[in-house]
Amino acid sequence: MAQKVLVEMLEDIDGTPAAHTIPFALDGVTYEIDLTDDNAAALRDELARYIAAGRRTGGRKVRVATGQSTATTTVSDRERNQQIRAWANANGYEVSERGRLSSEVITAYEQAQITQAEEPAKAPRKRAPRKKVAAAGK
Questions:
Q1: What is the per-residue pLDDT for 128?
Q2: Residue 126 needs a FRET pair 20 to 30 A away by CA distance; which of 49, 59, 61, 117 works?
Q3: What is the radius of gyration, based on Cα positions, of the chain?
Q4: What is the DSSP string of 17-74?
Q5: CB within 8 A of 13, min separation 6: which ones?
Q6: Which of 71, 103, 66 shows the shortest CA–CA distance to 84?
Q7: Which CATH architecture has domain 8-60?
Q8: Reduced to 3 states, what is the DSSP secondary structure of residue 10?
Q9: What gap in Å lies between CA 48 and CA 36, rounded to an integer?
Q10: CATH number for the 75-118 domain, one of 2.60.120, 4.10.320, 3.40.1350, 1.10.10?
Q11: What is the pTM of this model?
Q12: What is the tally of helices (H) and strands (E) in the chain?
C-alpha cells in the first residue's frame, strides 16, 4: 500500500500557509516563527530601527530556507582560500590547512594583491652568461 504524506507549514500567527521560518533571538533565547511573506516583511520592518541602533555581536547571517539550495561556500571561495593559504605560508604567516582564515591574514593578502597590481611591470633582469670551468686534471 502506498502512502503520501503532505506536510504543510502554517503561519504561527493566523494559521494560513506560511512561506518562511524566521529565526530570531531576544534576551539570550533563540526563537523561530513561521510566517507568510507579508508578515515576515512586517516583522523585519518592525525590528529595523532596533537592528540599526544595535550592534552585531557575532554569528553569521542565516539564510532562511525557501526551497532553494542554501550552500554558502562555492568552488571559487575554496579556490580563493587555497590561494590565500599558499600566499600566507610563503610570506611567514602560520595558517592551518583547514578552517577559517583570520581577518588579519585575509587583509594582508588583499593588501599584497593591491600593491602587486599597482607596481609597474618590471623588465626581467638579464643574467650574465655562465663561464665554463675547465675540469681540473684533464
A1: 61
A2: 117
A3: 28
A4: BP-EEEEEEETTEEEEEEE-HHHHHHHHHHHHHHHHHS---S--PPPPPSSS------
A5: 33, 35, 39
A6: 103
A7: 2-Layer Sandwich (3.30)
A8: strand
A9: 18
A10: 4.10.320
A11: 0.42
A12: 3, 2
**Closest among 47, 50, 7, 6 to 23, alpha carbons compared:** 47
C-alpha cell at position 33: 516563527
Grouping H, G, I as helix, E, B as strand and the rest as coil, residue 8 is coil
Mean pLDDT of residues grouped by 10 in the chain (138 residues)? 88 92 88 93 93 82 52 71 91 87 89 77 60 60
- Per the listing, cell 588583499 goes with 110
Q: Which of 71, 95, 69 is nearest to 82 (CA)?
A: 95
Query: What single letter denotes the amino acid at residue 2?
Result: A
Q: Which is nearest to 50 in space by CA: 30, 69, 29, 25?
A: 25
Q: What letter represents residue 19's amino acid?
A: A
Instruction: Report the pLDDT value the prediction gives residue 41, as an integer from 0 to 100.
Output: 93
Cβ burial of 108 (10 Å; 0-12, 13-18, 19+) is middle
